[in-house]
Amino acid sequence: MATKITVRKEREFLLRRADILAQAERIFATKGYSATTMAEIADASGFAIGSLYHFFQGKEHLYETLITEKIDKFQDEIRRSSLAADTALERVSAIVKTHFAMLTTYENFFSILIKWEGIHQKDKRPNLLEKLLDNYRGYTDFVESVLREGQVQGEFPNVEPRVAAIALIGMIDAFAFSWLISANREPLQDRAEALLDLFFRGVNGYGKA
Amino acid sequence: MATKITVRKEREFLLRRADILAQAERIFATKGYSATTMAEIADASGFAIGSLYHFFQGKEHLYETLITEKIDKFQDEIRRSSLAADTALERVSAIVKTHFAMLTTYENFFSILIKWEGIHQKDKRPNLLEKLLDNYRGYTDFVESVLREGQVQGEFPNVEPRVAAIALIGMIDAFAFSWLISANREPLQDRAEALLDLFFRGVNGYGKA
DNA sequence: GCGATAATTGAATCAACATTCAGATATTGA
DNA sequence: TCAATATCTGAATGTTGATTCAATTATCGC
């Protein structure tokens, strides 16, 4: 039966593709985009250079796919865990804690982001940077909506939700960043508590505990 | 008298060099590092390509010089204005307000940072990214010291200075960033007040006003 | 097993620019 | 004005590495 084989082939194709992405991620994370060659990726994934072009249109496409896929997963995870909580306070808390938890699991990905290189796209339109900015705006919108709903329930009386959302994301990113670049990776969980305490006192006038 | 001429030549050399840097800054800010060619910079500054190499060792050196000079000035400005204030609260306030004020004057520079591209340095060691990270650490250290001194005077009782410093810088950067990428540049001054209010309430238990 | 189809290979090609440097031009001191 | 020196010029060079594609190998249905 032809379709059965087709399905299996499809699956195998995707597995190989995913493997190439995984290898590429590792290399991009250590060397950055431009210092990484297609030859290296081919080598690491056990394919010939030419074969990579059956899976991706080119180096740029490979890089974009990698980043796009990861960032989407990351966003989904944050939203899911946040919306699973019942109260506004818990939702905010979930955002911070999930973000920090993801830092460990997605470490390579974040290393790539820190080494960020805007890609030289001679004419192509909305490029990767634009996509990342959209993503950031979407994230801010989400946090804002969580805070706004909280206000409906009487929380966070002291602030404009948009402002607080930007501030919160800024703090999260700052802690994440300084953790990523620090040599001694002290557990982030403690930091999460300190951050939330600071934030809740700031927006509510009293600490979380 | 030979030295007189030497001095004038020296000065003219530096002026030309500064002009090249200014033109390059503008172009880097709109197109990013790799999309900018030496030919363009030469064109914009009215020199031939070859001449650029009398002023800078190469494209990379030009870019590094640009970023290093700006960031040093930026840091100086922040420290100066902060230390000019007397109380800890005013010092923190000065950091935020100066940072925001610089955003307008150094806009091109910050656009370059947003379009950040790690440069592919085949073998050279401490690269630009490392320098920027050091700078970030230095900035954090400074803010931390301001907060720590404040604590000696009884302010900010609720937090660890390092944690609060990271949080504060994170918030500043977040507001700066969202201002830079927003279409309608609403005045940042209002944001400064909101930010400080949030922060002081967070670290002190009461708002700034 | 066999022809047909799909997947894989990697050496050769190609484009893009940074950089160089031999010659042209300008500036200097006399 | 003139030789000496400093400065500038931009076409030609060189390097790097992504991409291509004709040839090879694997997999398929029968």
Can you describe what's shown?
The structure is a homodimer of 209-residue chains. Chain A has nine helices and no strands. With 209 residues, chain A is mainly alpha-helical. Chain A is elongated. Chain A has helices at 2-31, 38-45, 49-55, 59-84, 88-105, 107-114, 128-152, 161-181, 188-204. Chain A binds chain B through residues 32-35, 114-122, 129, 133, 136-137, 140, 158-160, 163-164, 166-167, 169-175, 177-178, 181, 191, 194-195, 197-199, 201-203, 205, 207, and chain B through 32-35, 114-118, 120-122, 129, 133, 136, 140, 158-160, 163-164, 166-167, 169-175, 177-178, 181, 191, 194-195, 197-199, 201-203, 205, 207.
How would you briefly describe this protein structure?
The structure is a homodimer of 209-residue chains. With 209 residues, chain A is mainly α.
Key traits:
77% helix; homodimer; mainly alpha; DNA-binding; 0% strand; 9 helices
